[in-house]
From TrEMBL:
<keyword id="KW-0021">Allosteric enzyme</keyword>
<feature type="binding site">
    <location>
        <position position="54"/>
    </location>
    <ligand>
        <name>UMP</name>
    </ligand>
</feature>
<feature type="binding site">
    <location>
        <position position="169"/>
    </location>
    <ligand>
        <name>ATP</name>
    </ligand>
</feature>
<comment type="similarity">
    <text>Belongs to the UMP kinase family.</text>
</comment>
<dbReference type="GO" id="GO:0005524">
    <property type="term" value="F:ATP binding"/>
</dbReference>
<dbReference type="GO" id="GO:0044210">
    <property type="term" value="P:'de novo' CTP biosynthetic process"/>
</dbReference>
<feature type="binding site">
    <location>
        <position position="59"/>
    </location>
    <ligand>
        <name>ATP</name>
    </ligand>
</feature>
<feature type="region of interest" description="Involved in allosteric activation by GTP">
    <location>
        <begin position="20"/>
        <end position="25"/>
    </location>
</feature>
<keyword id="KW-0547">Nucleotide-binding</keyword>
<comment type="subunit">
    <text>Homohexamer.</text>
</comment>
<feature type="binding site">
    <location>
        <position position="55"/>
    </location>
    <ligand>
        <name>ATP</name>
    </ligand>
</feature>
<dbReference type="GO" id="GO:0005737">
    <property type="term" value="C:cytoplasm"/>
</dbReference>
<feature type="binding site">
    <location>
        <begin position="12"/>
        <end position="15"/>
    </location>
    <ligand>
        <name>ATP</name>
    </ligand>
</feature>
<feature type="binding site">
    <location>
        <position position="163"/>
    </location>
    <ligand>
        <name>ATP</name>
    </ligand>
</feature>
<keyword id="KW-0963">Cytoplasm</keyword>
<dbReference type="InterPro" id="IPR036393">
    <property type="entry name" value="AceGlu_kinase-like_sf"/>
</dbReference>
<dbReference type="Pfam" id="PF00696">
    <property type="entry name" value="AA_kinase"/>
</dbReference>
Length: 240
């Protein structure tokens, strides 16, 4: 049997990853593909927590730039992450994977409130836990949510699944043909060079808590499993 390198992971999915090539909304084929990959990993005995973004439905930053109150725009973005989380939960449970959604903003009719000890207990029972509604606070991204939840549940690694790039580059590879892909980086490198892997708050939180990050492409099926098994895919970002 294949032996996973990590026992407990946080999988960070951008909202755009759920939209696929259409760029907005939820693409059923994409979400089913992701659910199948998560099931593969869960069947290895890995404890899986997921943080989903909401950029395929709404971006708080966009609303703020339109003149909307920033806090209001961010709360709308949190609600978008709940919609994505429920869609992902449905796909996972259709595959027979027991799943719980926990929200940072209470909405008991659709999901559990986030309680750290309960989340850990679900993971120990091999349930997939999806953390929705960000941190519950405006001005914080879902990248920061992933870093915070990873620290809280003592995850071994954060797997950051990207929709249109297969790792961390020195520049945008779609714009700059000379962009160089990094195999390994430190969080200090990421912050100093402004590489845009995740925002500086999330990077600092990961660095302070010594949580490694693997950035890879979600579009190639099986990549989540490859990352969990310790194969060299994408870019790994480590402590200092």
């Amino acid at each position: 049997m294949e032996k996973p390198k990590y026992k407990r992971i946080v999988l960070k999915l951008s909202g755009e990853a759920l939209a696929g090539e259409q760029g907005f909304g939820i693409n059923p084929a994409v979400i089913q593909s992701i659910a199948k990959q998560v099931k593969e990993v869960a069947e290895l005995g890995v404890e899986v927590a997921i943080v989903v973004g909401g950029g395929n439905i709404w971006r708080g930053k966009t609303g703020s730039e339109m003149g909307m109150d920033r806090a209001t725009a961010d709360y709308m973005g949190m609600l978008a992450t709940v919609m994505n989380s429920l869609a992902l939960q449905d796909s996972l449970e259709n595959l027979g994977v027991e799943t719980r959604v926990q929200t940072s903003i209470e909405m008991r009719q659709v999901a559990e409130p986030y309680i750290r000890r309960r989340a850990i207990r679900h993971l120990e029972k091999k349930r997939v836990v999806i953390f929705a509604a960000g941190t519950g606070n405006p001005y914080f991204s879902t990248d920061t949510t992933a870093a915070l939840r990873a620290a809280e549940i003592e995850a071994d690694v954060i797997l950051m699944a990207k929709n249109n790039v297969d790792g961390v580059y020195s520049a945008d590879p779609k714009v700059d043909a000379n962009a160089v892909k990094y195999d390994e980086l430190s969080y200090l490198d990421v912050i100093k060079q402004g590489l845009g892997v995740m925002d500086s708050t999330a990077s600092s939180l990961c660095m302070d808590n010594d949580i490694p990050l693997i950035v890879f492409s979600i579009t190639e099926e099986g990549n989540i499993k490859r990352a969990v098994l310790g194969e060299n895919i994408g870019t790994i970002v480590r402590g200092k």
